[in-house]
Amino acid sequence: MAYSPLIEQLIDSLRALPGVGPKSAQRMAFHLLLRDRRGGAALADVLAAAMERVGECRDCHLPTEDEQCPICASDRRDPALLCLVESPADVFALEQATDYQGRYFVLGGRLSPLDGIGPAELGLDRLEERLRAGEVREVILATSPTVEGEATSQYVAELARANGATCSRIAHGVPMGGELETVDSGTLSHAFAGRRGY
Amino acid sequence: MTGQAHPVPAWVVHRRSYRDTSLLLELLTRDHGRIGAVARGARGQRSRWRGVLEPFQPVLVNWAGRGELATLTFAEAGGRPLRFPGTRLAGAFYLSELLLRLLRRDDPVPDVFVAYGDALTSLAAADQPEDVPLRLFEKRLLEGLGYGLLLDSTADTGRPVDPGARYRYELEYGPVEADPEAAGLVISGAALLALAREELADEALRGEVQRLMRAAVGLYIGARPLQSRALYASLRRTDLSQEQEP
Lengths: 198, 246
Fold this sequence. Notes:
The complex is a heterodimer of chains A (198) and B (246). Chain A is α/β, with parallel strands linked by helices and 198 residues long.
């Protein structure tokens, strides 16, 4: 059977969400229409406003509706420390897990030569400008532990050194509560090669 | 392209995200050539393939299905993981980009499988200057695809190449004896023979070989530039202690 055009359109639009197929989209649509009109209307309003107004922070590229995100705007954050991450979600993960007091730079991806993503496509020239300004003393590389993340880190480390900043990278290793025999060999070899004085 | 009775050795050449939790892999096997395969759920939190399907690593795999894309049914590490320090990582990207650009899927060339593995292993081991495995892979890849270069005798007269002489290399033909003022792709006999014997310890000869291979590879990869070459060049910008770009 076919739904009326507007309902059909609603179901189709809900499928833009990740992990939502036709079945769940239909469930969501009917939930909003039959059980939670007010919630649905509020969702529509805030969605429209967010799509209209959210851009990115001019310094770190974190999504925000202001010119600067709260982290970059805060004067309690150390401008000499810059942490490089791949996605906005990484910033929130680090904010929850650590007491890091510096600032961030969100790349929005990683260098991936085999997919045609080079330094220019990633906007690494903007990072270079920022490093050249000279305020950053230390760059903390927090890209993901993949070959693309590693290539990105190497590239940024060269940029940092060329501009007189020191560079460190977050450790890669055995997860907490894990047992060595169940850790994959790539991770274990990284962890072993990167062991520290104890 | 159906599955195997037992898992077979393969190299992960490339890997990209596919749908919400899956990976799309390009694998290189000895007897089945390059295979495109989907690893379902490989990016999930609890995937048993976490950390196994990483680019430039040896794996043991099995797969099912016919057609353009196979479905991965088994994967585990196929050896000690390889790690590529510094610009050698850009070298590994280069080998893989070249392979993906020149070798089609389901076109098995056992020599190319061996050459790719040798080149990655040598890059990771850092047992020789990093451009040596790149040059040897270029040579063996072209050979494997049927575009092998004539290196030990001249194309027009068939005389053996003299290490002391200079030659003009005509692509898709071979070396021809050149007068001293010859223009174009001029290369010494010593460099041709060094490449033929795969003995590239001499840095000056490697420079000549690089020019030749760049022109030869350029003939087949088309106009679109190689991204890994740009990455390599930019990594070396401030790191001049390293060797030639690919």
